[in-house]
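Example: CRISPR-associated endoribonuclease Cas6.
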Amino acid sequence: MLRIVCADNELFESSNFTFSGLKGQTKVGREGLHYFSKKATIVLTSPSKTFIDRVVQGLFQESHILLGNLMLQADSVEIEDAPTFKESMKYLCISPIVPFHQIEGLNNKMFVNPMSDDFSDMLYDSTMFRMEKSGKYTTEQISSFFRFQVIPDEQYLARINRMDKKFARIYSVIKGGEIFEARGYTLPFEVLAAPEVQEFIYNNGFGELTTHGFGMLDIPNFNPGKQPYIFDEETQQP
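Written out as structure tokens, the predicted fold is:
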């Protein structure tokens, strides 16, 4: 949706970000998902204020936004206060986490037990690669972020299994004009890592395919304050 609205592929390809699904009062019907609420919400996160400015500006420049049979119009935007990042943080998934993508010899749809070291190691490798690629951290800083562990909520996983529900599903993704599939996980978990790493995964998304709407996190029992969105002076307001 964001790519269509802003029509600036270079902006998206050079930025770190992720976004939630469209939130609203919904019901699943024969023809798909039906929205019954007058308002719907989407959450976007990025460490770049300029990036967010340009996305918001693009949304308000459109008189209407058509998603399937759903007609939307930009109404208002707010910014949430950031949490205090510590070496131990608990998270919820707003969107599924994809722990690996296009690793040689591995199937994107392969199931990896979240309780295994492999699951944590894959997310560590993904995070360090993305932090290094961002250019905002020195080699020495990246090397210092060796303490890293993902600890899923065992009680949640046991409860889901007893209820015969799924916390890992296969999702279709369009990338480079091609459709492929990847397995995403939705579960609560704790991350043990440096505060800088915690801030990165919160602002940039966790895992792979974040710019396709995967890996967006929330913090349980954290009610951030919300403020009216203010554009930077050099950014033209809608």
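Residues 117-134 form the longest helix (18 residues).
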